Amino acid sequence: MSGEILDNRGRGQAAWNWPSIHPEGRKFALIAAAISAFFAFMAWETLAWPTAVLVLCIAAFFRDPQRVTPRGDNLVVAPADGLITLITKTPPPRELQIDDGSGSGGMGEEAVTRISIFMSVFDVHINRSPIGGTVRRVIYIPGKYLNAGLDKASEENERQHIMVERGDGLKIGFTQIAGLVAKRIVPFVKPGDMLAAGQRVGLIRFGSRVDVYLPAGTEPKVLLGQKTIAGETVLAEIGQQPLIEGVSQ
């Protein structure tokens, strides 16, 4: 199904498939499988079975399912699977505000809407670009490993800022944030790369969060407490400011 065009009138074909394992996780799965095989060869069943289960857990964590990304010039899609835990007004991080001398200005100091998506260890951890455009910044910042659900994790935890600029100059920034268990942010992109909306940009190992900074004048089309699917869930439509209410049930 990769690269196929599908629509809301039945064009295309869709079928369930086992998700692939991202190459970043295959080495860990192979190491665990080798250890499990060794324990089984030695007839140490009390160790062989737990390590065999560990292989399955690693494969599940690094799963990389295909996604169908809605097409639309003004659509902003979710960069991460997870739970929307915070929606607030705040200026973008300083690293995304300032002009870094690269010829592409920052997002400015004006407060914009930030959507925080918390990823548990059970969620897919491949992150995707919310819009199509050119990668202007990839900035890694070392830091702490506080609970990623805390608001202050945006400023104190290990994190990586990415800014993508559309052809018309509109910019969106998003931040990969490590959490209590996450110990490494793995980028797949670099400044100058061209991206399509929903394209893979990196992953965070073992539980974390992604913050998205919407452009000024844009409000989310999702609700606090809603689950998102990376590359599929529409977070917002640029220039639209709807008030949407929901009921927890």
UniProtKB/TrEMBL annotation:
Catalyzes the formation of phosphatidylethanolamine (PtdEtn) from phosphatidylserine (PtdSer). The gene is psd. Heterodimer of a large membrane-associated beta subunit and a small pyruvoyl-containing alpha subunit. Is synthesized initially as an inactive proenzyme. Formation of the active enzyme involves a self-maturation process in which the active site pyruvoyl group is generated from an internal serine residue via an autocatalytic post-translational modification. Two non-identical subunits are generated from the proenzyme in this reaction, and the pyruvate is formed at the N-terminus of the alpha chain, which is derived from the carboxyl end of the proenzyme. Keywords: Cell membrane, Decarboxylase, Lipid biosynthesis, Lipid metabolism, Lyase, Membrane, Phospholipid biosynthesis, Phospholipid metabolism, Pyruvate, Transmembrane, Transmembrane helix, Zymogen. The chain crosses the membrane at residues 28-61. GO terms for cellular component: plasma membrane. Pfam families: PS_Dcarbxylase. It is a peripheral membrane protein. The modification Pyruvic acid (Ser) is found at residue 208. It is an enzyme of class 4 (lyase). This is Phosphatidylserine decarboxylase proenzyme. Its EC number is 4.1.1.65. It comes from Novosphingobium kunmingense. Its main location: membrane. Belongs to the phosphatidylserine decarboxylase family. PSD-A subfamily. One of its GO terms (molecular function) is phosphatidylserine decarboxylase activity.
